C-alpha cells in the first residue's frame, strides 16, 4: 500500500494496518487448516447451448466450507491463495476432484457423452515446474484423456512470460486439453494476447454482458469480440447471463454458449448430474 501511494509519501502507521495484518495471519492459518481438514469443495456451473439450453460443458468453481463463516466464494480468499504456494495444493485438489468425478462410472453414465469440464488455472500453478507432469499423472491415475478438460486462464499468465506460457500450453494441448481465455476484455492488452496464446475459447466477461441490451457501447464491444472470435476461429462463451433479454440478444451470434444464473448457479457436484443428466434414450 505504501508503495502504491508513491515514494514521496511518508508511511504512517495506522491501526487498520495492524487489523489487516491480523486478518491475513488468521486467513493463512484457516486456509492451511482447510487443506488439512478437507473443507474445500468443487461446485459445477453448466455452460449451455443457445439453441435449446442443453448442456455443453461445465465450469469447476472452488468453494470453502468455513467452519464458522459458512460457505465462502473465492472473492474471500483467492487473491491470498494465488499469492502463496497454497494455490498449487488447492489447484491439485480441484483437478483431482474433477477427474474423480468424470471417472466415476455411475456419474459419467448420467452425463452427456465425453462432457468436458473447465478448470480455472492461476499463473503460479501453470508456471510451476512440475505442473504438466502433475496433470499428466492425475489424468493417468483416473484413466482419462485430456479431452475431458479445458483450462481457463487469464491474460495474467502471459504477463510473466508469453513464450513460456505458450510452451506450457502446447505441452498440455498435446494431452487433449483445450484452453479458454477467461474474463476477456477486462485486461490491458487482451487482443495481443488473444492472437498469440493458443486458446480455443474466449469467455466474454460478465461486465460486458450486464447492460448489453441497453448500453450501445457494450453491445458494440461484444459485437467486436464476436467478430474477432469468428476471424480467429474461436468458440465463445458469454459469462454472467442473468436475464432472458440478454440471452435473446446474444442469440444473434450463432454458436455462442451461455453461462449464468439464468440457467443455473454453480451447484455441488452430487446435484449436478442429477439436475443435468442426459435425457433418457
Ligand atoms: P471466473 O472464472 O470468471 O468464474 C465465473 C464467476 O462468475 C464465478 O464466480 C461464478 O459463480 C460467477 N457467475 C456465473 N454466472 C453468474 C451470474 O449470472 N451472475 C453473477 N453475479 N455471477 C455469476 P465465483 O465462483 O465466485 O469465482 C470467482 C473467481 O474465482 C472465478 O472467476 C475464478 O477466477 C476464480 N476461481 C474459482 N474457482 C477457482 C479455482 O478452482 N482455481 C482458481 N485458480 N481460481 C478459481
Ligand atoms: Mg473461469
Ligand atoms: Mg470469468
Ligand atoms: Mg476470473
From TrEMBL:
> What residues does the EAL domain cover?
24-280
> Which superkingdom, per the lineage?
Bacteria
What this protein is called in its record is Bifunctional diguanylate cyclase/phosphodiesterase
Name the species this protein comes from: Saccharospirillum mangrovi
The top of its lineage is: Bacteria, Pseudomonadati, Pseudomonadota, Gammaproteobacteria, Oceanospirillales
The full protein's residues present here are: 525 to 805 of 805
